[in-house]
Amino acid sequence: MTAHGPITRMPMMPPEQPLAFPVQDLSSDYRDGAAPDLPNDPSTRLWRLATFLPAIITTGGLIAAFTDWFAMGGLSVFEGILIALIACTFFWISLSVSTVTVGLVNMMRPRIARSGKPAPAQDVALLVPVYNEVPWDVFGNACAMLEELDRTQHPHSFTLFILSDTRDEVIAEQELRAFAMLRANLPDHIALHYRRRIDNIDRKVGNLADWVQRWGGGYDAMLVLDADSLMSGQAIITLTDEMAHDPSAGLIQSFPQLFGAETLFGRVQQFSSTIYGAALAEGLARWADHEGNYWGHNAIIRTAAFASCAGLPRLDTFRSKGALILSHDFVEAGLLRRAGWGVRFMPQVKGSYEEVPATLIDYVLRDRRWCQGNLQHLNILGSKGFHPVTRFHLFHGAMGYLLSPAWFALLTVWALIGKGEEANVIRYFTGENPQVAWPEMGHVSNLAILVFMYGMLLAPKFLGAAALLRSGPSLRDLGGAGQFVLSFVTEIIVSVLYAPILMVQQTIAVARTWIGFKETWTPQARQGGRYGFTTVLKFHALETVAGALLVAGMSEGIITLWLLPIAVSLALAVPLSMLSGAKLTRFKWTSRQLGTAEVFNAPAIIQSAKRERSRIRVVLENADQVAAE
User: If we measure between CA atoms, which residue out of 95, 94, 121, 103 comes closest to residue 456?
Assistant: First the structure.
């Protein structure tokens, strides 16, 4: 059979094995009678104190310092709001620092090895939901994972399902041909299935719910993947073993590393996640314990537990009735924990990967969808029975976006106040001093604020790099000591340049969500969209205008020059955005920059996936060409 011959009409799905999947009531508590008691680790409370107490104490000290500084003529309501904004933004920065510190300490502790007792055999479904994705990438990854699992010794049974919600008929035809090609080429004992829904009710949530209700009864666990997910055979087996050994676990989340980045912006994200993410992930896993979170993919879930307690209801908000819960993963993790099941995070599992948006605009477009979903969680905080840590995860996800408007407000005030009473924007245009007893902003105080702010923002990066170099890849896998230092400095500079732009874009995302703008949940442009100058200019108009106004205010002497780094970033938003898509892989020297182990010494699963993607792409494109002729 050839890929351009008749598409196979073989049965693409196994016999149905239904499983009840009731919708949960968020207004009443629920406990799953099948959930065993969770292990009690007395040290968890100490780790949580070690994480949150320093953040609370340092934030309290900052509040006291600013209150004393502002209170020269008595505190006004406006000054109180400013102090609250400062405290809010600083607390989350401080919490990040303390989480990384806890992670660093935890990484230095010896690992307790699990006993050599074999894991009970598990029937596991690998689920790959897709929606108008590039077929050769999806099926290439699937082929690589299945072949590696087939070569690895284990007691488990794995079945991979491609669950298509694709609406584009051309892509759907390619999916069928890719499935037929893999089914013909893979050994008969490798289980691979494909299903395309007639409609895509409830998007990914409905896609997975359809599988659970129709086939979930036949599998002990399901390992949920994204269309761009890739996991080594050993990573899949390790997660499966861990769930088999821990009967209290309802969900175990791995820590996906980024791979495949070729552009400047993609490489910055990949390098940052690899170098700084390890300690942050370790710290989060340590204090979260059995109250962890779920990121929607690269996680193994106990099927019966999920079906019993994680059916998502529609959500009534003040803007809409019966709304679909968009960022479903956080809520599903909370529902599992509410029912008595443990939700764990295992960052030490290696070989779990996902891809990354290639350009700044692609990242922002994805971020807008996530913003809408995460802010929706504020309507769920009061749900009955959620564990306090679950509520914190939900609130933390929303605050990740709400902090940008807070930062934007603080920087706006700083710009308006300018150099003090005699030189500020308000006095310049109205002749009146602002009704705020703002302290004198001399060179020393401005410098102190900048050093303090950037010091706290950069501290997790240096701590994370120290942690990774101790327990992560060797310097050889990072291109050598000199290359690593160059990449480290480059990442900091590029991140500082893009941070103000992302702050403005997240502020826009929050505003769009607040006014009720419905984001279109379209497939990600994983290879990067191509955007012309006019499109980029329209997209970054607000940043460009804001940056130009800041620069103009500085030239008039009414805005402090200490805001120049932020002003430059905003004013240059358009060229920086266009630069974000520059392909570093075009030249040998640039291809090394911001490289990680996935670049310099790519694991076998990544090399295999790339080969399979290329092979399937050639066959499918040749088939399309023959069909067109």
Answer: 94
- For the chain, what is the mean pLDDT? 88
Q: Residues of the chain with pLDDT > 90: what percent?
A: 69
Which helix H or strand E contains 352, and what residues bound it? strand 352-354
Which amino acid is located at 564 in the chain? L
Predicted local confidence at residue 419, as pLDDT: 60
Provide the edge-to-edge strand list for the sheet that holds 230-231: 230-231, 352-354, 257-258
Backbone angles phi, psi at 160, to 5 degrees: -105, 130
Give the C-alpha separation, 447 to 435, whole Å.
24
CA distance 391 to 165: 31
Residue 620's contacts (CB-CB under 8 Å, 6 or more residues apart) are 3, 135, 136, 174, 177, 178
Global pTM? 0.92
What is the per-residue DSSP string for 143-189?
A: HHHHHHHHHS--S-EEEEEEEE----HHHHHHHHHHHHHHHHHS-TT
DSSP string, 385-448: T--HHHHHHHHHHHHHHHHHHHHHHHHHHHHHHTTSTTS-HHHHHHS---SS-PPP--HHHHHH
CA 255 to chain centre: 10
Q: Name the strand (E) or helix (H) holding 62.
A: helix 43-70
pLDDT tens digits, 54-111: 999 999 998 988 888 777 667 777 778 888 888 998 999 899 999 999 998 888 877 7
Contact 219, 159 (CB under 8 A): yes
Q: What is the dihedral of CA 99, 105, 107, 111, to 10 degrees?
A: -120
Tokens representing 154? 């284990």
Is 60 exceeded by the pLDDT of residue 435? no
Phi, psi angle pair for 310, to nearest 5°: -120, 20
User: pLDDT tens digit string along 295-354?
Assistant: 999 999 999 999 999 999 998 876 778 889 999 999 999 999 999 999 999 999 999 999
Contact assessment for residue 186 and residue 148, using Cβ atoms and an 8 Å cutoff: no
Burial of 459 (0-12, 13-18, 19+ CB in 10 A): middle
* DSSP category for residue 4: T
Tell me, what's the pLDDT at 27? 93
Token pair of 425 as six digits: 């924007």
- Is 536 a residue whose pLDDT tops 60? yes
Q: How far is CA 443 from CA 550, 564, 586, in A?
A: 18, 14, 44
- Tell me the percentage of the chain whose pLDDT exceeds 70: 88
* Exposure of 497 in the CB half-sphere (CA atoms within 13 A): 19
**239 class by beta-carbon count within 10 Å (0-12 exposed, 13-18 middle, 19+ buried):** buried
